[in-house]
Design a protein that fits this description.
The complex is a heterodimer of chains A (about 140) and B (about 110). By secondary structure, chain A is of the alpha+beta class. Chain A contains 2 helices and 9 strands; from the N terminus they run ααβββββββββ. The radius of gyration of chain A is 19 Å and the shape is elongated. The termini of chain A are far apart. In chain B, the strands form 2 sheets. Chain B has a 5-stranded mixed beta sheet with strand order 2-8-7-4-5, with no helix packed on it. A 3-stranded antiparallel beta sheet of chain B has the order 1-3-6, with no helix packed on it. The chains are: A alpha+beta (about 140), B mainly beta (about 110).
Chain lengths: ~140, ~110
């Protein structure tokens, strides 16, 4: 099967599009989740704290802690997982502090994102990169 | 996979009125993510606990919506206010419809 110069260019162009597409698509999965949570409102940086190890030796159980004073809910996302959702903490009237610890799974080295919904309706966001070395020896 | 599920909760037995206490919970559960494959290459269907609620005398302390990225044997540590004597109620909701419950009484004084 012979291709003319024009056809080759078209195929090359299509391949380039197909290759570059997945990256924005992944990022938008996180953005989509955030939009769903915020309802499209502006999200300020900071105001929510995310404590996660810099290097996690075992991606199957990575301890994290989220806290945001005065938040009514905190959503945690893992940008590099097959599905970005991790957990959403909704704090009730008897919450002693807007803080929670849990253990999560991370598919690989990636950003963990925490978005907090404040009592006044504003939103805050922070993120942290966690290096995952599954089965490694701490490298 | 609902066999062998056992909730464990660590909460103080007594507190001052209005005191903030730390609560730790752990429930044994496989939390099958729906991403793994068995030896024949078939995807193992997702089976997780998707919601955890802690309430004190009926009032919510924490309500967590969970996704497959929560580790096996989901663990939570959080803080709760104890306004008066009563019971902490802990409820886990499984994908298969099972509901696991635990209760811890707290006395004040």
């Amino acid at each position: 099967m012979d291709f003319t110069r024009r056809e080759t260019l078209v195929i090359g162009g299509a391949t380039a599009v197909a290759v570059t597409l997945p990256m924005p698509a992944m990022a938008s999965a996180v953005d989509e989740k955030i939009n769903e949570f915020t309802g499209g409102a502006d999200v300020a940086e900071g105001g929510v704290e995310l404590d996660a190890p810099e290097i996690a030796e075992n991606g199957n159980t990575v301890p994290i802690e989220v806290s945001a004073e005065g938040a009514s809910a905190i959503m945690v996302l893992a940008a590099g997982n097959p599905t970005p959702g991790v957990a959403t903490f909704n704090f009730g009237p008897l919450a002693g502090a807007q803080r929670a610890k849990t253990r999560i799974r991370l598919a690989g080295t990636q950003d963990v994102v925490a978005v907090a919904k404040m009592a006044d309706g504003s939103f805050a966001k922070t993120q942290k990169t966690v290096k995952v070395t599954i089965g490694g020896c701490g490298g | 996979m609902a066999e062998g599920v056992r909730p464990r909760v660590k909460a103080p037995k007594s507190a001052e009125a209005g005191e903030v206490v730390v609560i730790k919970t752990l429930i044994s559960h496989k939390m099958e993510s729906g991403q793994r494959k068995d030896s024949d290459g078939n995807v193992i269907p997702q089976s997780i606990i998707h919601r955890f609620v802690c309430a004190f005398n009926g009032e919510t302390v924490l309500d967590v919506e969970m996704h497959p990225a929560i580790s096996t044997n989901p663990y939570f540590e959080f803080e709760a206010t104890v306004p008066e004597a009563g019971d902490f109620e802990f409820t886990w909701y499984d994908d298969d419809g099972s509901v696991y419950e635990d209760k811890k009484s707290v006395s004040v004084g």
